[in-house]
Amino acid sequence: MRKIIHIDMDAFYASVEQRDDASLRNRPVAVGGSRERGVVMAASYEARHFGVRSAMPSATARRLCPDLVFVRPRFEAYKAVSSEIRAVFEEHTPVIEPVALDEAYLDVTENLKGLRSATEVARDIRATIFARTGLTASAGVSYNKFLAKVASDHRKPDALFVITPTMGPDFVEALPIGQFRGVGPATEAKMQRLGIRTGADLKARALDELRATFGSAGDYYYRVARGIDERPVRANRERKSIGAETTFSDDTSEYAVLAARLQPLLDKVWAVATAKAVVARTVTLKLKFSDFAQITRARSLTQPLADRAMLEQVSLGLLRDAFPLRRSVRLIGTAISSLQTRSGEGEPLQLDLSI
Question: Which residues bind Mg(2+) (predicted)?
Fold first, then answer.
């Protein structure tokens, strides 16, 4: 039986800001956006008390919490702290699956320090992270990834919770359906309409019914309702895409302005791809409008992108294809996917964009 830990830093971006700026401590803080525009990337627990959440429009967050302090994100600072946290993980196990800068799964079935239990490992990790960074982490310990994730969320912030094999099935049955990994707001609403409100309700549904209602996800729901998750912790999980986006201070519907604002995003995406030694065959453009509706446009190519100029050419082509616009744009983003490791046999071929 595996021993899995899920580590989730508490309000990571906001906590780093509060640590580094004493004037922000014990105050409601939102990272990202601005007082009236943009989107909240992260919120401190003081802000969450007022209902402020990540991905919330800044104007909404401001209405919920008039004293909210907006802070510009400092990604280099967050990456540096994330590297410190990763070093702590590596002292305990080589089997680490990062999910984000502030979150990871660890398989500690065998641990490098020879500690007696996964709970001891999680306790040591949390204490070491706090000693080195001054930040708190919540940890969930269980026998699979699904339950470890549920456990880390159970008593946040600054908590350690264990779900043993004996506890697992009953714990899942009592779990509100919205707390299941993979059940987003739309799926939760659908399940609620069907009378599925808890894990017990989900467990009562036959596999064929779940497949008919939820497609391929039905198999997953059937298993996790019984506390079953056989996914391994993948130490070298492949990155699926590389992207960047930006929210404007003023909406615009002018092609020239949007094309100009796309340029630094292309620089970021290509720099990461170069550093990771990967190439891509799919380019995606994202536009979010003034009413928060959004569209994506993508193009897949027969051969990998050759260089940054080719990425720009494809991206601007996608932007041109989106015109004319019926609404002004508040956010633009770009991403590359269908990634593969760059071979040692030379540069990717130039592309024939007529295909």
Answer: 8, 102
